[in-house]
Amino acid sequence: MTDMLDPVTRNHVEKAAEALEDEFAGTFSRETIGRFLAESVDLLDGSKINVFVPVLAHRFARERLRALGQAEGLVTKDQPEVLFVCVQNAGRSQIAAGLVTLRSGGLVGVRSAGSDPAEVVNPLVAESMAELGVDLAEAFPKPLTDEVVRAADVVVTMGCGDACPLYPGKRYEDWDVSDPAAAVSYEEVRAIRDDIDLRVQRLLTELGIPLAS
Prior knowledge:
Helix content is 46%, strand content 10%. By secondary structure, the chain is α/β, with parallel strands linked by helices. The protein folds into two domains: 2-71, Orthogonal Bundle (Helicase, Ruva Protein, domain 3); 81-206, Rossmann fold, CATH 3.40.50.2300.
């Protein structure tokens, strides 16, 4: 995929690789970083127009490398990590991830992914989260990858069946939550958000995380 990018975009991807090499120097080799970045470009192919490829691929590869480092004990994990997985990573899992950050006051690390990612986050979902002060403007759907599952302490699935691999020593939950993509009104999206909010607050309480005021 990287060979098929136009020269300007390829140059930006190369600069993204250099930034990742600086950040993860001493943790991962240049080859590993290059492979993860190239894979991330491929995995995001078609989800955004080319102008966004370098930025999103950099962010996606950075998240994956950090997760890999946590899973392999190369990067310190100083807080619980929760992973939310739904089908499109455009609604339920984005809501849940945003609410964990909000309700925990940032005391819990959180990631989200989709078994079949959409192109963009559902605009009504973003609007409903903005009502609570959560900005999803920079959020984007990401495919599920193995390292983010390995790095998680808690994995919550929502409507994606058995797409998520099982690893010992992790807490798995499956939340039966309606999909905002099927909602016929904004009020339904709000109701889904509020349902997830209650579940998030319960999860945080069970993890011993004080709820932020």
